[in-house]
Design goal:
Blueprint lengths: L3 H4 L7 E2 L4 H11 L3 E5 L5 E6 H6 L23 H10 L4 E6 L2 E7 H7 L20 E3 L4 H11 L3 E5 L5 E6 H6 L2 E11 L14 E11 L16 E2 L4 H11 L3 E5 L5 E6 H4 L5
Parallel strand pairs: 1-2, 6-7, 11-12
Antiparallel strand pairs: 2-3, 4-5, 7-8, 9-10, 12-13
GO molecular function, one term: IMP dehydrogenase activity
Enzyme class: oxidoreductase
Protein name: Inosine-5'-monophosphate dehydrogenase
Length: 277
């Protein structure tokens, strides 16, 4: 069986504490990552920070106050079957690879599919693993609304519907994040220093002005950032063939169509790794 060390990514994009949420956001946008490992100066893994964490804690500025300190990890010698089970059982997209507490790499669902399953000869049809429920969104949905829908529905992508209800494209979290920009945001905090009574109040109040950066999405609809070039498979397409298509086109999900070309489901990389169990 294929080992973690054969499929994992060793050149990991991470963030070192102390650091701000803005720094994490900038890295997520630049490298198109939905989450980042958080390490200390000794390169020990201390947490994971995700876009979901940031959105749900809008008033926190320090990564240490936002990140998740509980996480699953694997070792380089573990088999990918064990990793697949951890990912599926915990609804994760990636898991850090640890040795003596230090971050050695990251192995994601897509790594297992593209660097592992794509090289195997698994002939089961994708019909066995595909999902008939396909997350969809209207092409004129504003980007900010689309991103929040993704967060609340825990979906990383949407098939995009045109005005006639037909599929016109596909959009994922990275497409939306990449379209944003970081703008300066001025925050004013009033400092009122007083004693036990009003006579001890210091007037006027001091104002502390802090300039930070905030990810701002443009006033654009989904159709302006979506991908319109769709790769498709049929329900009889073999699992390994689906994995090869994902690797070839650098994608994480493929629409499944019938003989008439109508959409009947979706096969995702997370569905494909179930074939290992």
């Amino acid at each position: 069986m294929i080992k973690v060390e054969e499929v994992m990514v060793k050149d990991v994009i991470s963030v070192t504490i102390p650091a701000t949420v803005n720094e994490a956001l900038e890295k997520m946008q630049k490298f198109k990552k939905p989450d980042l490992p958080v390490i200390n100066k000794e390169k020990e893994l201390v947490g994971i920070i995700s876009l979901d964490d940031i959105i749900k804690n809008p008033n926190e500025d320090q990564i240490a106050l936002v990140m998740s300190r509980e996480f699953k990890s694997v070792k380089e010698g573990d088999g990918v079957k064990k990793v697949a089970k951890i990912l599926l059982d915990n609804n994760l997209t990636r898991v850090p690879v640890i040795s003596n507490g230090k971050l050695m790499g990251v192995v994601a669902v897509r790594d297992i599919v593209m660097n592992g399953i794509s090289k195997l000869d698994l002939n089961e049809p994708c019909q066995k693993y595909m999902k008939e429920e396909v997350p969809c969104i209207w092409q004129d949905t504003p980007l900010r609304s689309a991103l929040m829908i993704m967060v609340y529905s825990k979906s990383t992508f949407f098939m995009v519907l045109g005005n006639d209800g037909g599929i016109v494209g596909i959009v994922d979290t990275q497409d939306i994040m990449s379209s944003g920009e970081f703008l300066d945001e001025l925050k004013t905090t009033e400092l009122n220093i007083s004693g036990e009574g009003d006579d001890w109040a210091w007037e006027p109040k001091n104002a502390l002005h802090i300039v930070s950066k905030k990810l701002t999405l443009p006033l654009k609809p989904v159709k302006e950032v979506m991908s319109t070039e769709l790769v498709t498979v049929t329900r009889k397409t073999a699992i390994s063939k689906c994995a090869k298509e994902m690797r070839k086109n650098n994608i994480e999900q493929i629409p499944v169509i019938n003989a008439e070309g109508a959409l009947i489901g979706i096969i995702r990389d997370v569905d494909i790794i179930k074939s290992l169990l």
